[in-house]
Design brief:
single chain; mainly beta; nine-stranded antiparallel sheet; two-stranded antiparallel sheet
């Protein structure tokens, strides 16, 4: 199903300055502890992260959604290997996990594609996250219209991302040479105003984590 919400001012640059540094703050035994997460473990070295949204999945895994805020770049997801323990030691959950990128079809269905040495043809996982854009291109991910602020609905399994704009949509490829056709999640050529995309997993019993996704594009002009 495809819906559309276009709004040239809503949700733009609301949170980017707060989270772009790539740090997380964890509550441990009543005290706060901060940790730098700007390295390769969640792919910051490989793309321009404008904002991240972390959620605790129904099975306890941490799921972090990230947008690469450039015209024609990609939407990513990180899933922790470990699980969250309330009141426990959770500081290292973002240090180990799997990186995915979104592929969205013209019919409104999509998948999260794993970025690994096997899927990208790269030599190591470190190379994959350092060159995340190249990896996303290699697996055929969907080029997006500057995916920026990401937010999760706290009451049900659905996520939102602000797609800021893309004057090059349908005009020329992105910086990596990937085509940017106007279709599916990015339906407007020369998109000067942007849109908001909402998506939810196809498997309702798995909150946030399903590898299949069904997006809806909301337009308000």
């Amino acid at each position: 199903m495809i819906e559309q919400i276009y709004n040239p001012v809503l949700w733009v640059d609301c949170m980017g300055a707060l989270v772009n540094a790539g740090a997380d703050i964890t509550m441990l035994g009543g005290s706060l502890r901060s940790a730098d997460r700007s390295g390769v473990q969640i792919g910051h070295g490989g793309f321009r992260v404008a904002a991240e949204k972390g959620s605790v999945n129904g099975d306890g895994h941490i799921v972090v959604y990230m947008g690469d805020d450039e015209r024609g770049e990609f939407l990513y997801r990180f899933v922790s290997s470990g699980v969250y323990a309330e009141g426990g030691e959770n500081a290292d959950l973002l240090s180990d996990g799997a990186l995915y990128v979104a592929k969205i079809h013209p019919d409104g269905t999509g998948q999260w594609l794993a970025l690994t040495p096997e899927t990208t043809g790269m030599a190591s996982q470190a190379e994959v996250v350092i060159h995340a854009r190249m990896g996303a291109s290699a697996v055929g991910a969907t080029t997006m219209d500057r995916p920026e602020w990401v937010a999760a609905n706290p009451n049900k399994a659905e996520i939102y991302v602000a797609l800021t704009n893309n004057k090059n949509r349908g005009v020329k490829p992105n910086a990596g040479g990937d085509a940017t056709p106007a279709m599916g999640a990015n339906p407007r050529a020369e998109n000067n105003y942007g849109q908001i995309m909402r998506w939810w997993p196809s498997g309702a019993e798995i909150r946030y984590l399903s590898d299949d996704l069904t997006p809806a594009i909301h337009n308000e002009c």
